[in-house]
């Protein structure tokens, strides 16, 4: 029976029009992932009321229903008429009580009556919008967050929701409000993060890191079930998992979530923002300031740093690249310049495949300068004022951010290509005095030997495991 639902899905994949697929984000879930998603629901021997949002071929609702007792009801909402027909065919194989609603989820009024909600929504970015909630509304910037909020609000008391979504909601500024709302609204029960990016959606050309999330409408459970390196190749019950309290996964007021517990060697380190430092984003947005970019140095101009100026662990200026290396004097009227002094520059984007997700470079500028907004910079000020770091602190911090333990820490919380200032502020950090000691032990050079940095840091903090 299940094989037939898989065949219906595969047939529909072959018939998707590329225009419609792009427009409605029709990336259909393969059967192994659908089975893993449905396996996260608790077993119940009473009939369920299932909701499948953005149902596609109905594969998720059908696999969920096939595991439940007779008398279960499925409501599937799908905007695409052809897929809605496929959904009818799939769901009728496993359930007698099926209602297919061929409409947009935004045009359907749902009561909070469902005991099982399952979805693999569209992942599109949208203009920031407020979703109405009992508490007044929550700001979202992605369609999957809107679908998930609708799903959660359709849950009956005690109901469970499983979603196939990107990992991006777990960290960063954009999803901050959504995270807070969701964690207050329901219990976070399970997180399943796939080890490889493409393995599970091979025929769908999906490049984002995708995960399974299970939440339920009840007070927070004591333990969250975590699979931090799952594979769709075998049932989840045969894969490694851990159960940990939610608090051990949450970071700071922004409620950043990581998928593993923190390395115990970092236990004594406070977040960077508690060490008298702050992470900001470069203030120059090049396309809004085209008129002041300059290819040559002018008498009253200032240096401009891009990620191209990050030469290994030091920032250099000027460098040969195809970006203007100066801004004209006019910049002084635009609240863009940073005061002369020492800082640590950090990239804002990096891929999982890179040796280090965080690329830190020490900069000591004798003059005021501008930084492109594709760079973060760490300083001693606040969100409103920029104050340079003590020079030895800037060097020590650059070394600290180049360690493998910090790289592992960052990979645990970020599944996207962004390196967010919000996340960096929560990064475990030694005291300033310890950073200065570190700077005395090892010079910051362009071609820093990262193995050596690990050794020196390991010795300084007596981490025998790391040396
Ligand atoms: C990522 S696909 C997943 C389909 C199916 N749930 C699955 O797992 O295979 C998202 C589905 O949502 C549908 N969709 C997109 N926007 C929608 C909307 N506003 N209302 C209802 N369905 C929508 C698309 O047509 C597509 O079938």
From TrEMBL:
Q: Does the keyword field hold S-adenosyl-L-methionine?
A: yes
BP terms from Gene Ontology: DNA modification; methylation
Limits of the Type II methyltransferase M.TaqI-like domain: 110-197
UniProt keyword annotations, A-Z: Methyltransferase, S-adenosyl-L-methionine, Transferase
CDD domains with a match to the protein in the record: AdoMet_MTases
Any one Pfam family here would be: Eco57I
Q: What is this protein called?
A: site-specific DNA-methyltransferase (adenine-specific)
For this protein, the Enzyme Commission number is 2.1.1.72
Stored InterPro entries: DNA_methylase_N6_adenine_CS (IPR002052), MethylTrfase_TaqI-like_dom (IPR011639), N4_N6_ade-DNA_methylase (IPR050953), SAM-dependent_MTases_sf (IPR029063)
Top-level taxon of the source organism = Bacteria
Q: Which GO terms describe its molecular function?
A: nucleic acid binding; site-specific DNA-methyltransferase (adenine-specific) activity
Recorded catalytic reaction(s): these are: a 2'-deoxyadenosine in DNA + S-adenosyl-L-methionine = an N(6)-methyl-2'-deoxyadenosine in DNA + S-adenosyl-L-homocysteine + H(+)
